[in-house]
Amino acid sequence: MKRKISLVLAAALVTGSLPLSVQAATFRDLQETPWAASAITSAVDKKLLSGYADGTFRGNRNVTKTECMTMLYNVVVNANFLQKMQTDNISVLYGAIEAAHIPDWASTPVLYGLGTGILELPDVMRFYENGSAKEATREEVAIMFGKALESKYDTLHQKSADFIDRLEISHKGMPYVNLLARLGIVSGDQHKRFQPKKPITRAEMAVMVNKTYALLADEQANQGEITEIVNHNGDYYDLTIHMDNGETLKFAAMNDNTGIYNKDGSREISLSQFAKGDRVSLVYEGGYLKSIYLLSQESSPQSRFDVTGYTISLKDRQLTLANENTGETQKYTIDSNVICYLDGKKTTYAKLEELTEENYNQYIYTGLMLDSETVKEGRENVQKTKVKEVYMTVSDTYTSNGQVESVTENKVTFKEKEGLRKTVYYQNNCAFYLGEEKENIANIIKIADTETLYVKVYMDKAQKATKVVFSADSFTQEKKEKTKMGTLIEFSDRRMSVLFGGEKITYSFKSDHPLDNIFFYTWDSDSREWVESSFKQAEKVYDNTNDDVYCRVHFNDGGKLSAVYVSENRSVFKESSGAEETRKGTVVSIEDGILKFKASSQPYKMLNQYNVKKKIKIDGTEKEIIRNELNILGAVTSSSVVLQKMANSPDTILYAEIVADEDHVVQRVKEAYLTYAKGKLVEYDAGSDPHMIIETSDGAQIDLKVMRNPATGSNDYTWEDIATTNYIGEVLELGFNSNGEVSKITAVNGTPLGSGKRVEGMAAGATGGLKLEGDNNVYDWTSSVTIRSKSFDYEHLYTLKDLINDPDVRLHIHANLSDTDRVEVVNATVKSAKGKLDEYSHSKHTIRFITNAGNTFTLNTIPSPINNASKGDLEKLTEEWQGKNVSLEFNSDGLVTTINP
Questions:
Q1: Of 221, 514, 720, 770, whose CB neighbour count within 10 A is largest?
Q2: Residues with Cβ < 8 Å from 859, sequence gap 6 or more?
Q3: Structure pTM?
Q4: Closest CA to 270 of 300, 295, 294
Q5: 241-288, pLDDT tens digit by residue?
């Protein structure tokens, strides 16, 4: 195995790397290279290079190869971008540096270059010739810088730089010149020439090191957030970007003339993939945007495109597609000005048509961006849809989805849209997801027993699942919202601004949403129905109303406005639609007024309060009552605060059934109750209205109703025992009945012994007694210590001592003490462990490993822990990873959940 060392300590050597001095402010010859003056000043200020003792910079002087490598080294050190060196042949490298007559001030940078692959031995042997340092060419420097950056930026999937002398660039240098040109680090002269064989000057190096440092250090000048983006029918886009340095920049960008990339530049994308609020990195010159990189997390294909699926045929601008969400076969017309992408690179329509012919026996995954307009044909409103952008890639998998009927540890059965039942078995390394989060199949099985789930299965050609995504949301639902309701805050023939749940969205009638393509409707109070109106009539409703004016907007398949309904009376929208949604399931959080379910990606907005005034008739008399629409079962107090505690605590599981309107605002919480809770006992009142207060690990105190005579699941103690003061402060696990009342109480650490005194904390040592971190006491061991743990099955004290004393294992200890403060009972939970893998048993759910101290331990795992060590295949873990180092992650019970390399 190759040894690796970090060169972070070498940063201290940088100051002496170049035998130069003098600060930029004192240079008296900057006028000789005015085009580079600011770059020289900036680079010197950052200590990337320096000037001469006589007060000059000498920007037109050529730079040697040794100096170039030293300047590059200064950049990666100061930008905190040092890479690890392979040092199995370190003595050979030192010998080569001596043989090549590299001076002492450059030995560390050159050693770094050799150890990281930036330089090759034959290169270094040519740094000096007959005692003279060799000058570096522009291409040679591009190779050095490109190799230093290729660990972060893709050099394979990129288009060639547009230099007229690109044929003069060597095959070796071409990918690195392309990379630096794409990143804006190098550029051609006024004639678009790169001049690869020309010696590079100090002024040119100042520009290169300054731009490279800015890129690696993520300087504010390069990055910002899109505050406005206007699409001019796909022809060009107006971008307004608020830069991190406080500037606001505006550009007109086109897909054909601007380099548009994902975060690392490995794929070309379209401007249509950008949105307001996205983080971006720019390469620009004056008012011209050369390249833009999308730094924000890219969304899934289903979110990025209007339609996704698998191409069946493509001919004569007619595309037949199998929709991956609905399974339907759909046909689309390809626009004459379509923008085409193949494997993340721009291509032509002809190439895509050729691809479908050559790969007829493979899966061609396709994403479409649509553009629609609504036209009137007779009395009907008809949508005309064309494909504006096509993204294709040849795939080894295809997807199917439907409603889950059953799920086990080795297969899932579901009903597809057509009602056909399908059973798919998993590959050994199949990955499971609940929504967007990776999840263990055992947990998914539990959720499927109580909730309706949908599934999307990714299958290989053997019809086995490689990836399975479960969700409470149907995968056949439309991606784009077809309708939204909000409050009008601006309405003119130029634009319309609507407030949706506190978020302002503006629709431009001059660009994205032409008025001629939108139908307007107003409410007729006499007929109590919507009537088709002109824009002017809708505008009149807005202008003539002093109170709030409401609207409902509808979108076509291309995401463009197709209809707008306007009224000053909010209730007519409810009257006309009456749409309500009931959702139930396990709640994962309620934060900032947003409720999220564990198995659903749809967020729900909570109201500020749920005490609703209602008018009812009692004996013919109308009376006003206050009704609480928040029904928390099992809670002594039913309030939004209590509900948030239950939802957000890491030690509780909350189940809820809510009713939301079509804007996903929760109107009623029909019922909510805990199904599990864990916490320290604060109070237990077993009187006429039994209840207990527990405190969870996040400090939340929850007051819960308790059924009479709850079970304990143990013969060692009863509920009456728990109601005594001996159990105050004890950690309890609670089970609940269907009314939300506590029905089972389990003392996690068993029966308190002796005086009932307990100590807990991270174990610090076991020799001579138990030592805990932050506790100066040493607790002697009794002759017969009882050991309890879910992490392992050891019963002997000497093994527990080995675990505690081993620096590669960290344990949390709960200990019961005798009257003389000696340890009688230990509850141990492993929090972290590492060592060399010896054996993993899938049938026993155990993992055995050897620590650096030579101890061999066996720990318990969950049924299917996440395996990041051997490509996810648990059955091959021992075979492929035996003897190699692993680090283990644990859940709150101390069971291994993840195996990392």
A1: 770
A2: 791, 792, 830, 833, 846, 847, 848, 849, 888, 896
A3: 0.44
A4: 294
A5: 987 666 788 888 887 778 887 776 666 787 877 877 788 888 777 678
